[in-house]
Amino acid sequence: MCGIVAYLGSQEAYPLLIKGLKRLEYRGYDSAGIAVLNGEGLKAYKRKGKVQELEDFIHSTPPLGKAGIGHTRWATHGIPNDINAHPHLSGNGKLALVHNGIIENYALLKAALEKEGHHFQSDTDTEVLAHLIEEVQNRGQLPLEEAVRIALKRVVGAYAIVVISQDEPGKLVAARKASPLVIGIGKQEFFLASDATPIIEHTRKVVYLNDEEIAVVSLHDGMKVKTIQNEVQTPFIHELDMELESLEKSGFDYFMLKEIYEQPTTIADSMRGRINVEENLVRLGGLGNHIDKICQARRIIIVACGTSWHSGLIGEYLIEDLARIQVEVEYASEFRYRNPIITDEDVVIAISQSGETADTLAALELAKEKGATALGIVNVVGSSIARLTDAGAYIHAGPEIGVASTKAFTGQVALLTMLALVLAKKKGTINPDYFHRLVAELANIPNKVEKVLEYDAEIKYIAREIKDRHNALYLGRGCNFPVALEGALKLKEISYIHAEGYPAAEMKHGPIALIDEQMPVIVIATNKSAYDKIASNIQEVKARKGMVIAVVTERDKAISEMADFAIRIPDTEEPLTPLLSVIPLQLLSYYIAVMRGCNVDQPRNLAKSVTVE
Ligand code: G6P
User: Fold this and answer.
1) What is the pLDDT at residue 610?
2) Average pLDDT for residues 557-581, to the nearest whole number?
3) Contact 192, 6 (CB under 8 A)
4) Cβ proximity of 449 and 580 under 8 Å
5) CATH number for the 454-600 domain, one of 3.40.50.150, 3.40.50.410, 3.40.50.10490, 3.40.50.300?
């Protein structure tokens, strides 16, 4: 969702805020703003559009001051425009606030404040909070942090906020509930942000605020943390493990392309120290003694959203097939509200790249409340989901900046594959030779991903054939059915072409009605076990003049001859094919989107990390 950045120290705040906002822009990019404090008071600038537009607007007269807050927005309440952009000021203009999340009872609070004579400029929930803090402060003559604490007690919803006040310079007050906030600690300076990406170039020492905690950072008194209930906390300082280079495009046109090309490395990183072919070993240290619990579980429930939900579906195929444990995959948003039956015999696994998705987090909380073992497969270290779980495994894909997820997906699938192997071995449900073949082949997958990437130019050529179509259908079977869903999602997300993924056999029950010469059908045809059936599905498409793009294995003959275009991937063991078959679909979507002139890294209306419901 939105991105927050704030600075307090001895440097000029403005350039740090702008640079930080650019780093955070992947979180939201419909408007941006800053407020900087100096001896003359607070100076706020807000602009609809990208951070660059804000910078151009401020242009040659950047505000001076050594404390400030900034925000890049993904609109919830109120359309994206200059007025609704953050920071929002209190009625007397002395206090400014940036906010991520949603204040659910803002209408009630607003009505009460209006009765007290407050007037509002914007349509946002955030402005209401700025006025509420001011009202609480004025009534009780309270210090800023106390006013923030009392105001937040009246708030229902989710928030990460940073507040700055001209009456109390040399101080910032921050708080979080269900929306992340990280505080970087430098030498006599503090960097606050909604994730670590703008902080890493300044300091590696960070504190992750916990839910319902308030932090005060002050040039005189350092950092103090307490809860909303007024209990003093001792903050734990973490060391960031992230490379600055991973936040740069490194010569690629877009982060998404860079991240697609990183996959040989990121898949290898997800397996580092976990797979040993010589010793025929797979181990997931982070899950430790929970492996026995999973083996004995009544069932595994995977909760996730978006692309992570698709990787969960692949996990279902692999774990059920290899380890014979029942798996259910649920949209976190549905699971959390449908009063699901969960017991302490269940294991719930949350899959999330960001580790911050509001619905996934809430689904996991619910599972924990009901006594289930709560595990996580997460990319962002120290994220909320990672901290909530009983145990888990990081995928180690590094920061993913492109809004459309690519390397996180393959990292998740690699991890779920390892999990299926660990469980299958422990339960004795897998033939030892087959286990060994899968382990050896999995270790070799990064090399095979390299090979798929060599077909880049051919995939680009095919993209040209599809770029002006209005619809596309993706078909797959078995563990490649979720890959079809993921391929369709990628196309929708970044090129705005309507696309649907279907199990290949299900085409006859509806989507076949759509097929004519205008309809490209992308078929994943790498499953040996269902080869003839997929060939029949392709014939059905051809008979109705659809254009077939088939993803096939290198030595394939029959389907390649039938298809209008064939994309070849190296042969591998069938359960591992998703790790290869998804790569051409990512590239295809990427090139189609570029050819259509779309902003691939920042597609319209989407956000990288969905921290509101
Ligand atoms: C958003 C992103 C998707 C992502 C989904 C789940 O919709 O745009 O790319 O798959 O959230 O995010 P998570 O961080 O939980 O994997």
Assistant:
1) 83
2) 96
3) yes
4) yes
5) 3.40.50.10490
Whether the link from the prior residue into 63 is cis, omega within 30° of 0, is: no
For ligand 1, atom 15: residue with the closest CA: 352
Name the residue with the closest Cα to ligand 1, atom 8: 608
Instruction: Read off the pTM.
Output: 0.90
Taking the centre of ligand 1 as the mean of its atom positions, its distance from the CA of residue 398, in whole angstroms, is: 15
Same fold, 3-240 and 454-600: no
Q: Is 360 in the pocket of ligand 1 (CB under 6 A)?
A: yes
243-451: CATH architecture? 3-Layer(aba) Sandwich (3.40)
Our answer on whether the CB atom of 567 is closer than 6 Å to any ligand 1 atom is: no
pLDDT at 178 over 90: no
The whole-angstrom separation of Cα 574 and Cα 528 is 7
Alpha-carbon dihedral of residues 565, 567, 573, 577, nearest 10 degrees? -100
Q: Is 528 helix (H, G, I), strand (E, B) or coil?
A: coil
Answer yes or no: are the C-beta atoms of 371 and 310 closer than 8 Å. no
CA–centroid distance, 550 to ligand 1, in Å, is: 27
Residue 530's pLDDT is what? 87
The answer to whether the beta carbons of residues 603 and 401 sit under 8 Å apart is no
User: Is 2 noted as a catalytic residue in this protein?
Assistant: yes
Query: Which stretches of 115-261 are assigned E, i.e. beta strand?
Result: 159-165, 171-177, 182-185, 190-193, 205-208, 213-218, 222-227, 232-233, 238-239
Q: Looking at 25-39, 106-120, 216-230, 236-250, which range is the least confident one? A: 236-250
Name the token pair of 134: 């001011």
pLDDT of residue 563: 95
**Which residues lie below 8 Å from residue 273, measured CB to CB, with a gap of 6+?**
285
Where residue 342 falls among pLDDT bands split at 50, 70, 90? very high
Strands (E), 271-411: 275-276, 281-282, 299-304, 327-331, 346-352, 373-378, 391-394
Element (H, E) at 42: strand 41-48
* Measured distance CA(379)–CA(390) in Å, rounded: 16
Given the residues 43, 48, 258, 608, the one annotated as active site: 608
Atom in ligand 1 nearest the alpha carbon of residue 307 = 10
Given the candidates 1.10.3210.10, 3.60.20.10, 3.40.50.1980, 2.60.370.10, the CATH classification of the domain at 3-240 is 3.60.20.10
Q: Is 110 close to ligand 1, i.e. is its CB under 6 Å away?
A: no
Whether the per-residue pLDDT at 289 is higher than 90: the answer is no
pLDDT of amino acid 320: 98
Q: Check if 166 has its Cβ closer than 6 Å to any atom of ligand 1.
A: no
φ and ψ of 285, to 5 deg: -55, -40
DSSP state of 94: S
368 is catalytic: no
Judged against a pLDDT cut of 80, whether residue 80 lies above it is answered with yes
CB 205 within 8 A of CB 178: no
In the chain, where the domains are located: 3-240, 243-451, 454-600
Take residue 155 and report the two structure tokens written for it. Answer: 């708030």
Q: Which pLDDT belongs to residue 382?
A: 86
Block residue for tokens 């790790």: 579
**pLDDT grade, residue 581 (50/70/90)?**
very high
